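Translate sequence into structure tokens.
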Amino acid sequence: MAGTAEKISIANIITNAFGLLGRHAVVFFGFPLLLFGAPSLAITSLFGLEADFGNLDGPSSAYAIVFGYALAMAAVYVFLQGLLMLVAVQDLARQPNSLANCITQAVRNLPGLLGLGLVIIATFILIAAVMTLPVFGFSLQILSVQSLDGAPSMIVTTLAIILIGIIVFVYLSLMWMVAIPAKVVEPIGVFAALGRSRRLTAGSRRRLLLVGVILFFFNVAVSLPLGLIAQFGPVVEMLANVLGSAINIAFASALVASAYIELRAVKEGASTDELADVFA
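Result follows.
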């Protein structure tokens, strides 16, 4: 086992991520464009550029379509994440890639990945709800007495709660950063994947935070020019949004997969051969 004092290399993570994007550009960019672009084009062709559901038979039909679309996109997203993680980890483990095999494994892991996503989303929603309750209570109290005497304290409390919420959100995001690759690669259950990610990221979350900051600025650098291009009309806007999503998903997936490999190598001393054995 590698020494616990050894630290992950941000340079290795970024270098491996860009290497992945270069070697598997068709998969990392093509699949997001296909899986997100095709549904967007379908919605546009059915309902127009503004996606107006007002002509449907009642609001229930519109809600059903929106809910079904959201559910389908969630399934597409987790499938895409599973596929990209498998391709990335096999590449970084120097295991011969088989796209058909990766697709099969991603489909097989789809229920577990959906469960993992639901657990994470439900956790964040629960935390947000708990932190919102005090603010809601203060607001009701001020309205009931019809006085602004408590407004300053409520504002300070609200800002404090927002700050705490941001800290908790960032901490959990870092702690569970490699849950998806752990789930599809090892493979393990939903809660085991969360625990596995927690153990792998322990002691390395500050450096992983820097990786997250790099990802944030990369997203900004991609979104700004595409946002300017999107001003040339609704069709261009739709295409720019799809392209931006594909680029950001590709880079984020490559970074997470690279971080997973780096964490296993540093924390556990996992060699290339040991990682390759996972896919044997």
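Note: The first helix runs from residue 10 to 23.
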